[in-house]
Design brief:
Length: about 210
């Protein structure tokens, strides 16, 4: 793994590279192959990979195993960190049931809800909102997934920040305001589906015109 700072934009693309490299079966892999599979520019991919792995060879590429190792190290995949769900409703519980986060170095350790008795989960604790600050500090949790209705999003985001959460993945459609030191990422499956709907209708039109 290379030392030094890696830009935020590069860090944002590293999980994509990791996802692809995990599927590569050949001993060597080139930036051009990665770029082609991910639909990214080759120059950008070459720069990104060079910033995490010093083992690249011009015109040949990277030893796949070494690149995988370095990507996992930079992304902190070697150790699993805990995350919490806030809002253990339909979506929150579905996320709690998904084991695949472990492959990316994350584990949902618990959930918090205004009505925990309605949100029983067989494997993980669903606790009250009042328990969140103490529990998160005790378990050193800094990542939270916000899955409450939009009207409650700001109030809950404030409670998460007051519990020591510094990175929030929000599924609520409402914008939330947080201190500058806190990172918020919004996830919107509906928006992705709307984009796919447009792509599908454009593909239909192209087929009809052919
Ligand atoms: N972005 C997407 O693609 C996408 C997809 C599905 C759902 N969502 C959003 O995710 C959120 C959850 O959806 P759902 O279907 O799971 O809803 P849900 O009603 O099943 O669950 C919401 C949960 O939040 C809890 N809650 C409400 N107010 C709270 C508060 N102030 N503090 C703590 N807990 C509180 C409720 O008790 C409930 O358990 C909604 O904002 C929804 O719009 C987004």
């Amino acid at each position: 793994m290379r030392n030094g700072t890696i830009s935020k934009a590069t860090i944002g693309r590293l999980p994509l590279y990791l996802q692809f490299i995990r599927t590569v079966k050949t001993e060597m892999v080139s930036s051009a192959t990665v770029a082609r599979h991910l639909g990214l520019g080759e120059v950008q991919v070459r720069k990104d990979l060079a910033s995490v792995c010093p083992a690249g060879m011009p015109k040949i590429g990277y030893p796949t195993e070494r690149l995988l190792n370095d990507l996992e190290a930079v992304l902190g995949m070697k150790q699993t960190v805990p995350a919490v769900v806030v809002g253990a409703g339909k979506l929150g519980r579905a996320l709690m049931a998904y084991d695949g986060f472990r492959e990316y170095g994350l584990e949902i350790a618990a959930a918090f809800d205004a009505c925990p008795s309605d949100a029983f989960h067989e494997k993980k604790p669903v606790l009250t909102m009042e328990q969140m600050p103490g529990w998160c500090r005790e378990h050193d949790v800094h990542i939270g997934i916000l899955t409450v209705p939009a009207v409650a999003a700001q109030e809950v985001a404030d409670q998460m920040v007051n519990s020591g959460i510094t990175a929030i993945l929000s599924f609520a459609s409402a914008p939330i305001r947080v201190p500058a030191a806190v990172t918020v990422k919004h996830e919107n499956i509906a928006l992705s589906l709307a984009c796919l709907k447009i792509a599908a209708s454009m593909a239909d039109q192209t087929t009809e015109e052919d």
